[in-house]
Amino acid sequence: MAKNVYYSDYLQLDKILNAQQTESGLAGDEAHDEMLFIIIHQAYELWFKQMKYEMQSIVDIMRKPTINDNSPDVFSVVHRLKRIATIWQLGIQQIDVLETMTPLDFLDFRDQLRPASGFQSFQFKMLEAMMGLKFEDRHGKAFYQSHLRKEHIDEIAKIEAQPSLIELLNGWLERIPFFDAPFYNDSTEVKFHPFWVDYKKAFASTLNENDESILKTFEQFFYTEGKLKGNRLSAKANRAALFILAYRDYPLLQIPFQLLDTLILIDELMSTWRARHISMVARMIGMRTGTGGSTGADYLSKSRDHHGVFNELSGLNTYLVQRKNLPELPIGLKERLGFS
Ligand code: HEM
Q1: What distance in Å separates the CA atoms of residue 103 and residue 288, rounded to the nearest whole number?
Q2: Domains of the chain
Q3: Residue 285: CB within 6 Å of ligand 1?
């Protein structure tokens, strides 16, 4: 016989709906807006949990050594990344709800929260780590170590020790075989590879004399062996990514394009969330330090500037050229990509 599932049991609402204890209420003087403050944070934590769940499944797929560019696997990765992007859009809008609380309302209970802070959201930090942010690249390392519980630091470190999404993306891009035989004979050194000679020429023709330095960065990004210092993607991966961004109209490249484009979107949405969070913080507490004890808006601006993971991908758009100026591809490669 089928199990008789009951709505509130299934969702364990007895636990969730009894998990909002206001500090002001405990102190005997309930501040009305503290309930909203708790529920908003809990809603974020549930969404962080969902995003971590999606991200882990994406990392597991990308870890497979046999992942094929147009397989259902890559489609699942793209689909789940798009879900993460949609959740971030919701996360940005949720700030509007919290901002119905005025700074004066917040002052009624803010001091009772010290030293707790959203900074201690270990799920947020796990998500950053799954994407590829390492401890050594974090702004405010000493603050991090003194303000997170050891068990949370250890859990985040465990994630950092596993391959992250950006590392797996780098490997996937490096394996893309389009610049080698049988499509091109001459693939000895990238500077002399026929495709890259033509691409650089096409790109250089779009620049004016003030843009000369861009040509130098073109060479650094695409011709340097290995990775540039501080970069997460290698030159080889950059070449494959630029190729996908430029030739994305070919059927075989459409899903890989969506993969790159959605990662760029997630980076942009997280940066928008960080920026909205900063302006909300400035509005709520002005120049004061955070409840967690950081420099407040100053710390947050630095983390916004330094904690993006996929910004190298959006940077590649600097090097796109108009469709009509793209180098013609060898016929065999065109066939492989789906147009003959
Ligand atoms: C009245 C509303 C809020 C204020 C005034 C505020 C303030 C701050 C401040 C000052 C910091 C820096 C650390 C510190 O010194 O405490 C911080 C960090 C943080 N807050 Fe909030 N916050 C608010 C709401 C939220 C909400 C709703 C979330 C959602 C989970 C959140 C998530 C975070 C996260 C993840 C960080 C760390 C960000 C990073 O390291 O880049 N905050 N917050």
Answers
A1: 12
A2: 31-337 (1.20.58.480)
A3: yes
Tell me the mean pLDDT in the region 196-213.
Answer: 90
Whole-model pTM: value is 0.95
Q: Are 206 and 321 in contact (CB under 8 A)?
A: yes
Tokens for 212, please give them: 């000369």
The pairs formed by 327-330 with CB atoms below 8 angstroms and a separation of 24 or more are: 327/195, 327/198, 327/199, 327/202, 329/183, 329/195, 329/247, 330/183, 330/184
Q: What integer pLDDT is reported at residue 153 of this predicted model? A: 98
**Which amino acid residue places its CA nearest to atom 40 of ligand 1?**
119
Q: Which of 165, 238, 135 is nearest to 196 (CA)?
A: 238
Rg (CA), the chain: 24
Q: Is 49 helix (H, G, I), strand (E, B) or coil?
A: helix
Ligand 1 site-directed mutation target among 39, 104, 112, 119, most atoms within 8 Å of CB: 119
Q: Is residue 293 in contact with ligand 1, taking CB distance under 6 Å?
A: yes
Res. 340: pLDDT tops 60: no
Dist. CA 157 → ligand 1 center (Å): 21
Distances (CA, A) of 132 to 49, 56, 138, 180: 17, 12, 11, 29
Total Cβ atoms within 10 A of residue 270: 24
Closest CA to 70 of 199, 196, 205, 253: 253
DSSP state, 231? Answer: -
Q: Distance between CA 166 and CA 233 in Å, rounded?
A: 8
Is residue 157 pLDDT above 90, yes or no? yes
Q: Is 52 helix (H, G, I), strand (E, B) or coil?
A: helix
Q: Which residue has the tokens 């190729």?
A: 243
Q: Which of 98, 117, 133, 304 for a ligand 1 pocket mutation test, highest count of atoms within 8 Å of Cβ?
A: 117
Question: What average pLDDT does this structure show over 9-34?
Answer: 98
Instruction: Check if 41 has its Cβ closer than 6 Å to any atom of ligand 1.
Output: yes
